[in-house]
Amino acid sequence: MLKYANFDIVFQEVPEEVTLAINISNCPNRCPGCHSKYLWENIGKPLDTNELNRLVEQYKSGITCVCFMGGDNEPDTVAELAKQLKNNHKGLKAAWYSGKNELPENISTDHFDYIKLGRYVANLGPLDSATTNQRMMKRLADGRVKDITEWFRKNKKLESVGAESALSSAADVTAQTIQTEAVAIA
Ligand code: SF4
């Protein structure tokens, strides 16, 4: 039985999507340097179609995607839940963060719009690292599958430019404020 420990609404795990990310427990991958070791335990609530529907109904007005974070112990169940999600909630995208380097051959990926593959290797870094071993694949409208891992590095660069620009604007405002106060005092 697939179980999930918790969930969150996230903005960066799946590019250009607002995602309900469901953290599935009982992870078999044991990646050295794992930041979510609590997910190694078989903890949480059962995640079946009813529970998935309940979560989605609660948040569907604000999300564009649902991501199954883990589930490598029961990949066939994850694939089935993705199928149910796409059938029951038209327009919502389905994503899967697998910690495996490859999915088992018998698993259907037809119902996923995004699949992230690859173990976490601390010295290679996560998806936004230039040396990462992980890959994010996206199914395009014409059915082709494209490697979009590069998007994470571009988004990271844009974020750091945005942060620098916000800092320099804040510095400008402070300088102007000081000048205005100086004029007023004079
Ligand atoms: S797949 Fe994720 S949760 Fe599982 S061991 Fe690796 S980093 Fe940790």
Summarize this entry quickly.
The protein is of the alpha/beta class and 186 residues long. Helices cover 33% and strands 20% of the residues. The chain folds into two domains: 3-148; 150-186.
List the helices and strands and how they pair.
Blueprint: E1 3-10, E2 19-24, E3 45-46, H1 49-59, E4 65-69, H2 75-88, E5 93-97, E6 114-117, E7 135-139, E8 145-147, H3 150-185
Parallel strand pairs: 2-4, 4-5, 5-6
Antiparallel strand pairs: 1-2, 1-3, 6-7, 7-8
The chain binds iron/sulfur cluster.
Residues 27, 29-31, 34, 36, 39, 70, 99, 119-120 line the site of iron/sulfur cluster.
Could you walk me through the main structural features you see in this protein, from its secondary elements to its overall organization?
The chain has three helices and eight strands; from the N terminus they run βββαβαββββα. The chain has helices at residues 49-59, 75-88, 150-185; strands at 3-10, 19-24, 45-46, 65-69, 93-97, 114-117, 135-139, 145-147. Strands 3-1-2-4-5-6-7-8 form an eight-stranded mixed β-sheet, with helices on one face. The radius of gyration is 21 Å and the shape is globular. The relative contact order is 0.12. It binds iron/sulfur cluster (SF4).
